[in-house]
Request: fold
Amino acid sequence: MFMPKIIPAILTNNFSDLEDKFKKLKGLTDWVQVDIADGKFVNNVSIKLEDIAKSDIVKNFSLEIHLMVLNPERYFKDCRKINTKRVAFHFEAVDNLKDVLSEAEKFSFQKSLALNPKTSITKVKPYLAKLDVVVLMSVAPGFQGQKFMRQILDKIKKLKKMKPEVKIEVDGGINLSNIKKISDSGADYLVVGSSLFKSGNIKETFKKLKEKIK
Reply:
């Protein structure tokens, strides 16, 4: 039986902060998400993929890159260079999704499509066969620390009915008070950012989050 997985998310524009967060996660998790923001698709700018390549500690983890960028296909080669295991890009950031997915098929990383909160899940239906994961954003992309949008729970259930075997990742506003409800709705991957890193005790909080979804 597949157990839901918690994936810590790092959004930063500071290399030292990136390394510090990875060090704090060592021994807690094998998967980590790093957000890449271009200041165009979202109103925020993060570190770049080439910055991640400079970090040795990153190599100890399975890396998920969340591309909050326009023209995500331009980033695929750099994702491969840092041995990314899964790449998420946004439905709303591309003009021709079919072409971007065709480009993604040239690479061995898992393909993940993210939908903003207001985007209907029906938009993803024609492409499900080509995707490993669908990301349902439960906050507006670009900034951590936002409140979870409860309507996403219905989207999870509807997407699972549409294709039961699809892996669903939920990203944004997940914390100790709502993680069980999100998991019970059918989420397979639960991305946790500020509620983990701002908790004061990352190790203890991660342990409590895992206990909630057992």
Summary: The longest helix spans residues 15-25. The CA atoms of residues 36 and 48 lie 7 Å apart. DSSP finds eight helices and eight strands in the chain.
